[in-house]
Amino acid sequence: MATHSAEETIEPAEGVVSSVSYKDPDAPKLFADSLHRTGFGVIRDHPIPQPMVEGIYKEWLDFFQDDAKHKYAFTRETQDGFFSPEISETAKGHTKRDLKEFYHLYTWGRYPAEVSDAARRYFDLAFDFATELLGWIEDNTPAEVKAKFSRPLPQMLSGPQHTLLRVLRYPPLTGDEDPEALRAAAHEDINLITLLPASNERGLQLINSNGQWTDVPSDFGSLIINVGDMLQEASGGYYRSTTHRVVNPTGDGARRSRVSLPFFLQPDPDVVLSERYTAGSYLDERLRELRHK
Ligand SMILES: O=C(O)CCC(=O)C(=O)O
Ligand SMILES: [Fe+2]
Questions:
Q1: Sign of the alpha-carbon dihedral angle for 128, 129, 132, 133
Q2: Is the CB of 204 under 6 A from ligand 1?
Q3: Rounded to the nearest whole angstrom, what is the distance from the C-alpha of residue 147 to the centroid of ligand 1?
Q4: What is the ipTM of this complex?
Q5: What does the pLDDT read at residue 213?
Q6: According to the UniProt entry, what is the EC number of this protein (predicted)?
Q7: Which of 12, 16, 102, 177 is the most exposed place for a label (fewest CB within 10 A)?
């Protein structure tokens, strides 16, 4: 039987992100409710092994500290590979580049010889789990909202070929950064949902329903899931693509790298999201805004 004790509310305010145990029979509903209320949900006791995540953090940190990464420089045509801090993203509506470097992994893309296949194995596990979560969302969406979906959410993907695993490193701060630059400026994700294991360092924040920045509950070992613009568009705003950012650390944390592993679940390009957009036309528009195109 489900009990309320299995759901931990993080802050005693309205609209707080719920942390739910994967093993709770009510998890699908609690999770979908949290996405509806806050745009974010947190899952504990999930099937993605934590040692795998930690191993990826460790070996990719070494990779980012090695010049070999430049062999895999991203290309405009394919959008896979290594993005250096010099060409890192500028969030929509911002002028300063984020203080980060990252590698875009696609199932069909280049994979660095310098690391083990753990990130590839992670990709497969994350894809299966994310597809299961789309089923949870589908099953717990009110009928009038579900009627807007051009097909059931798990069927918006024929496979993982458009989905992106981004391995991100935020380097230690030197003190010479532009005072207005952040590790990741306020933004929304473009895709359907994003899966993100808690990072090795703090810093992830969301704008809550009162318009205030608050920390996303990020207990090490838990998975954070957030709604992207495409799910917001497809659900007519029932699920909100909540603005989030990664703030710069102060004190000791400033001398450490932060690693994270967002997995952006992407529908097939021909999927109709709304009267205005297919997934393909939507993605094109947003990538142009990010200045990668
Ligand atoms: O690094 C993080 O914790 C979040 C990264 C993020 O929001 C993104 O890359 O879209
Ligand atoms: Fe994001």
A1: negative
A2: yes
A3: 31
A4: 0.99
A5: 96
A6: 1.13.12.19, 1.14.20.7
A7: 12
